[in-house]
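HUMAN: Quick job: go over this next protein and say how the chain folds.
***
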Amino acid sequence: MKFDDLDLDGQLLDAIYYMGFRDATPIQEQAIPIILSGKDLIGCAQTGTGKTAAFLLPVLDSLLYNESKNVKALIIVPTRELALQIDQQVEGISYGTGLTSLALYGGGDGIDWATQKEALTKGVDLVIATPGKLISHLNLGYVNFKDITHLVMDEADRMLDIGFHDDIMKILSYLPDKRQNLMFSATMPPKIKKFAKEILNEPEEISIAISKPAEGVLQAAYLVYDDQKTDLINHLLSDKNKYKSIIIFSSTKRNVSEIVRSLRRTGYKVKGISSNLEQEERESILSEFKARQFQILVGTDVISRGIDIKDINLVINYSVPKDAEDYVHRIGRTARADTTGVALTLVNPPEMKYLARIEELIEKEIFKMNPPEELGPGPKWKVSKGGGKNRRKKPFNKRRRR
């Protein structure tokens, strides 16, 4: 379906055409008419399916005809990275319309706070906020949400995982009862359905490719010991000179630093990002990576959601995420918008149970390999042969010797 067929305002159509978009994705095709009709909606769609535009386009369309000088729409998100990403998309889509937006997130200084307070008191059309930062402003009494017509909760599953349920309910107490509620989530566990019943009013439901990596992702796993992982990464990257953008995920900040040091010694252009960095520094690193100023970005799950970087060639999981859903979000950085990509996961014996959970979730066996001979033998697992179905053998607990 073309965007022309979705009954959107011409100003918004001009903006998205200028951005190079003509065809709506499945989530956009299904969600936009429902939102324009004024109904509540719960949408389930994975990373990279275009769900942000699926709610931004119809919400912005409605705001064009809303003459209130106060805040008209609120989008609640789990991370500052996602708040910034959505704010940037609002700027692009609403260019030339006169609509205004404000991103509220933690980590700023007093100047940021004063700027945010001024925007909230003078009036801004759309606010994108993390729960904690928004509550800090609400507690001071100068935020006027009486004219809000649209509430969007993006990545609702992540917000519940982080523990934002009570914060969200507090925020909702400041909003008018009559409003349109939109909830988007990458997964649909029972807790999300229960949460939706608390907030949404007879919602329509959409599910698009729940918890499945994009078909264009080539997935494989190497069965290794911990002290083989860094050497294996260097080995894997040795023939990837044509890859312009590579992301390496680690579950710990300490490993991020170790990986960065190792790769720099080998001569790679690489930078690390984690919650240890100030927000301004994190934003700067992400901007440089988007601009292809360096090849490899190493980070924790702080970058697995809420960033929009196109054409990632390779994702490497230095450690297997304990939450299978996080795996889907990590490798969702590659093979976006019908492109192809590679996702490699380094798995030690204790992590095999997490890999099994991932395979169960995505309903697919991940191809398994041993490390190259020069790195020494890996754990004694049965590896894949020709991509066929194989049962994993119980590993030896005895540590290998060098």
Q: What stands out?
A: The radius of gyration is 22 Å.
